[in-house]
Design goal:
heterodimer; A: mainly beta; two-stranded antiparallel sheet; globular; B: alpha+beta; 12 helices; 17 strands
Chain lengths: 32, 407
């Protein structure tokens, strides 16, 4: 199963994860 | 004679053993390479040939998924439960220390264990981050959407419209309510006036879906509050929804009503894909403070969404059954789309009790009022009645939203 997020954000939005990285619920994925 | 027999035995097992060993090494190496490709490595994607896709699509995947679900709903004998779930946990890497229920025998079957809850506090929510992970899993891909095309794997894209339906922004109109806070830092009391909209005082109950819509402070009879406390579910708008919590409403409204001064030209559409492996916790949570306004259920196929298939099947996310929740957050459009797969065909949204996924032909005909023609369809519903002020269902960051069921 998969969850896809699509969202609008300012260009300054940065992902703080890497492709292939394991994540847990509530872990930071992006910051502004 | 003994030596001759021993030599013969050695010859007999040595040759196949070497073949098996070399094959295993070769397959392992190949799988690792394929996984790297699926996770966005430098290698270009090697898509399946049309005849391979055609052959795969002939498999009765939805029927298999439903059968798999029914099989896993069979109540297991008590003696089998604990060792069975421990074996499953060992094979798929489940951390049993995090499982809410200490006594594994209380899970009647694998379906219940698969949909397990976690102990409170084992998944702390990062309050400072703008976006947090909605699920346990692996981040397969993320980036910026250009020209309405989302990148599935390197060099292969799919259309955003195909994933979410036409013109998703149109379904999430800008918030334009004339709103005034009484005290932003004060904890809101659901029986007290909360806000004044167009000169009318509103209570928390009326804003999150109370029966009267609004109540004047001086002339209201308080019926909405009493009714709200008694009713947990209610039909509002187009779909039956569960009443949202005051806490979620407070958090979301405070966040969404903060001004966003970013001009449209300084914004972009981003995407992220999180894959949940069989051993992962299979409930998903809200990744930020946002309002879900529209639900679009696309009844599609149930192909596998493992990294291997993601790197082989183009448009995979637009082919599979999925539930697109569309709405907005502080910075504009926001959507979250759980995508089903063969082994986890059913998607559940806890605040939307009308939603049924991976249904049979008979069920679809009964509930959607139309003849089933076997084609993929999109069923749309709105959550506009859930919160009058926010115009949808408020979801606070980290709040549990739903999950995936086996089959």
């Amino acid at each position: 199963s998969t969850v896809v997020l699509v969202f609008e954000a300012p260009k300054s939005f940065k992902f703080v994860v890497e492709a292939g990285e394991s994540v847990k619920v509530g872990q930071a994925m992006g910051v502004l | 004679a003994a030596r001759a027999g021993q030599a013969k035995f050695m010859r007999w097992w040595a040759v196949p053993a070497v073949i098996v060993l070399v094959s295993a090494l070769f397959v392992g190496k190949k799988r690792k390479k394929e996984t790297r490709e699926g996770e966005g490595g430098d290698q270009p994607a090697r898509l399946a040939k049309p005849w391979q896709v055609a052959a795969y699509s002939t498999l009765p995947l939805k029927a298999m998924s439903r059968l798999w679900g029914k099989f896993n709903d069979i109540t297991l004998p008590m003696w089998m439960r604990e060792p069975g779930f421990k074996l499953y946990s060992y094979v798929f890497g489940v951390n049993l220390d995090e499982v809410a229920e200490n006594d594994l025998r209380k899970y009647a079957n694998l379906g219940e264990f698969f949909y397990r809850e976690l102990k409170p506090g084992v998944r702390p929510i990062d309050e400072k981050a703008a976006l947090v992970s909605p699920a346990d899993g692996k981040v397969l891909h993320f980036g910026v959407i250009h020209d309405g095309q989302v990148e599935q794997v390197k060099g292969v894209t799919y259309s955003l419209d195909a994933l979410l339906g036409q013109n998703p922004n149109a379904s999430a109109p800008a918030h334009k309510v004339d709103f005034e806070y009484h005290d932003e830092d004060e904890v809101m009391d659901r029986h007290r006036d909360f806000a004044i909209v167009n000169g009318i005082p509103y209570t928390v109950d009326s804003l999150i879906g109370g029966t009267d819509g609004h109540r004047n402070n001086e002339h209201g009879n308080g019926e909405s509050q009493r009714h709200a406390d008694a009713v947990d579910h209610e039909d509002r708008g187009d779909v039956a929804i569960r009443r949202t919590s005051t806490t979620a409403f407070n958090k979301v409204s405070k966040e969404l009503l903060k001004p966003d001064t970013t001009p449209e030209s300084e914004k972009e559409l981003f995407f992220a894909v999180i894959y949940l492996a069989p051993g992962d916790y299979h409930r998903f949570h809200s990744p930020t403070h946002w309002v879900s306004q529209v639900r679009r259920h696309f009844s599609g196929e149930l192909y596998s969404v493992s990294p291997y298939f993601q790197s082989r099947l183009a448009n995979l996310f637009c082919l599979n059954e999925r539930v697109a929740l569309l709405g907005r957050w502080r910075y504009g459009f926001f959507s979250m789309t759980p995508v089903g797969a063969t082994n986890v065909g059913s998607i559940r949204i806890h605040f939307d009790k009308d939603l049924r996924t991976n249904t049979t032909r008979k069920y679809a005909e009964q509930h959607n009022g139309e003849e089933w023609d076997g084609k993929s369809r999109c069923y749309e519903a709105t959550y506009a009645g859930a919160s009058r002020l926010l115009g949808g269902y408020p979801l606070a960051k980290g709040e549990q939203m739903g999950g995936f069921n086996l089959g």
